[in-house]
């Protein structure tokens, strides 16, 4: 048996592949284009493991995907592959439209062609799980209820609009063609192997390098943080027992302002790697706000908890400590991902 996992050289997909193979012998076929965000170093421990098959390629390449499906005959596809960084989507939305919308469309069509060819029993057992984000629901005001699965889609950034479009395609492929799909909409993830363009890893690495810790606007924007391994366990659960055609919100009940997150990281670094002089929080610098910056995200994960019996295992306090410790002890992974392409993004975004 095998599953096809797209984008498994990225942050969440990489953690998913590692966790999957730590508890199952079912082969992971990993289709990843290896954009700047894809890094095979994350999967180094699987290098000589026959249960991990890596194929460099694009989810939008219909000929390649059809060939892979025919050859490996997976019982499920888990789609992580996407352009995922909001700031990059503001600077250059084109790749987001291409991969997140056109790529997902092509993938759905390739998978539909394969699915139709299966026996009735295999057809019924097959699953296409689409990994999406809470950002499709737009932004919340301070007193609003967290996003539930019935909230309307109101995406505000090119990234979230492209993910919203992909969610709609997935839904339509179920409603129209009967493809057995599942969709998960998760809040902000953090943890090991997170590319250091996103807030948490960027702040950890800038802090220990003695650089400014950039906070957009007033730093009072709220995100609902989930430790990546809890997201992976939610996806495994939805894949195993989720009801076909349903969507599930995934979140950790951990709403924090950006300033709180950065201050927590600074305090942990003060404890784990004290500076010779002063405190890390002195490096905090308020910078120009993101265009169209969503004020607050919060997830109501009760459907997943009630109907599928999932619960996160980490609190924000336990997860962020593990994350800071991980970054302090994985300098080789960090130096491999912080290549020339990464440095040119920093200079474009922060004028470094
Ligand atoms: P990431 O940017 O770290 O990884 C994306 C991976 O997809 C990379 O390995 C990249 O090489 C690959 N990829 C990009 N375009 C591709 C293409 N056309 N074909 C094949 N592979 C391609 O992203 P992530 O943070 O791991 O997010 C994974 C998924 O989870 C995304 O769909 C994202 O929208 C969703 N999500 C992310 C978060 C978060 O906080 N990071 C939260 C909720 C949902
Ligand atoms: P990010 O990690 O990019 O995730 P997302 O935009 O998908 O929520 O950003 C998390 C929050 O941190 C978001 O409100 C933007 C903010 N932020 C900063 O204040 N400074 C930074 O340098 C970055 C990258 C993000």
Order of SSEs? EHEEHEHHHEHEEHEEEHEEHEHHHH
Shape: globular
C-alpha end-to-end distance: 48 Å
Number of strands: 13
Q: What structural category characterises the helix and strand content?
A: alpha/beta
Averaged pLDDT: 97
At the first level of CATH, the class of one domain is: Alpha Beta
Kindly provide the radius of gyration, computed on alpha-carbon positions and rounded to a whole number of angstroms.
20 Å
Specify the CATH homologous superfamily of one domain.
Answer: NAD(P)-binding Rossmann-like Domain
Output the CATH topology of one domain: Rossmann fold
What proportion of the residues form beta strands (DSSP E)?
A: 15-25%
Unique ligands = nicotinamide-adenine-dinucleotide, thymidine-5'-diphosphate
Number of continuous helical runs: 13
Helix content: 40-55%
Oligomer: single chain
Can you describe what's shown?
This protein is α/β, with parallel strands linked by helices. The chain has a domain at 2-190 and 227-251 and 296-312: 3-Layer(aba) Sandwich (Rossmann fold), CATH 3.40.50. The protein contains 13 helices and 13 strands. It has helices at 11-23, 62-72, 86-91, 94-116, 120-125, 158-177, 199-208, 228-241, 258-272, 302-308, 316-328, 331-337, 340-350; strands at 2-6, 27-32, 52-56, 76-79, 127-133, 181-186, 189-190, 213-216, 222-224, 226-227, 247-250, 255-257, 284-287. Strands 3-2-1-4-5-6-11 form a 7-stranded parallel sheet, with helices on both faces. α6 links the parallel β5 and β6. α4 (94-116) runs parallel beside α6 (158-177) and α9 (258-272) crosses α11. 44% of the residues are buried. The model has no long low-confidence stretch (mean pLDDT 97). Nicotinamide-adenine-dinucleotide binds at residues 6-7, 9-13, 31-35, 37-38, 58-60, 80-84, 99, 103, 131-133, 163, 186, 188-189, 195.
């Amino acid at each position: 048996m095998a599953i096809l996992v797209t984008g498994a050289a990225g942050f969440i997909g990489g953690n998913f592949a590692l966790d999957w193979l730590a508890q199952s012998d079912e082969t992971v076929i990993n289709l990843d284009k290896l954009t700047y965000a894809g890094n095979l170093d994350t999967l180094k421990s699987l290098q000589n493991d026959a249960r991990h098959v890596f194929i460099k390629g694009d989810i939008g390449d219909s000929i390649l995907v059809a060939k892979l499906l025919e050859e490996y005959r997976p019982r499920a596809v888990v789609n992580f592959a996407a352009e995922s960084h909001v700031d990059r989507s503001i600077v250059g939305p084109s790749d987001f439209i291409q991969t997140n919308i056109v790529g997902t469309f092509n993938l759905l069509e390739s998978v539909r062609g394969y699915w139709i060819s299966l026996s009735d029993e295999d057809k019924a057992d097959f699953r296409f799980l689409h990994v999406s984000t809470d950002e499709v629901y737009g932004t919340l005001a301070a007193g609003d209820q967290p996003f539930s699965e019935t909230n309307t889609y109101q995406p505000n950034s090119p990234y979230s609009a492209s993910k919203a479009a992909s969610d709609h395609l997935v839904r339509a492929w179920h409603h129209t063609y009967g493809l057995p799909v599942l969709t998960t909409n998760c809040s902000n993830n953090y943890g090991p192997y997170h590319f250091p363009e996103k807030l948490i890893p960027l702040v950890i690495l800038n802090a220990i390098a003695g650089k400014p810790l950039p906070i957009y606007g007033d730093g009072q924007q709220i995100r609902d943080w989930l430790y990546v391994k809890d997201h992976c366990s939610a996806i495994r659960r939805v894949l195993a027992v989720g009801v076909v055609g349903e969507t599930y919100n995934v979140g950790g009940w951990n709403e924090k302002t950006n300033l709180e997150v950065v201050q927590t990281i600074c305090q942990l670094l003060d404890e784990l790697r004290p500076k010779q002089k002063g405190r890390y929080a002195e490096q905090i610098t308020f910078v120009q706000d993101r265009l169209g910056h969503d004020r607050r995200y919060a997830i109501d994960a009760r459907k997943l908890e009630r109907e599928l019996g999932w619960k996160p295992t980490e609190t924000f306090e336990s997860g962020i400590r593990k994350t800071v410790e991980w970054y302090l002890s994985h300098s080789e992974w960090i130096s491999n991902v912080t290549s020339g392409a990464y440095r040119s993004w920093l200079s474009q975004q922060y004028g470094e």
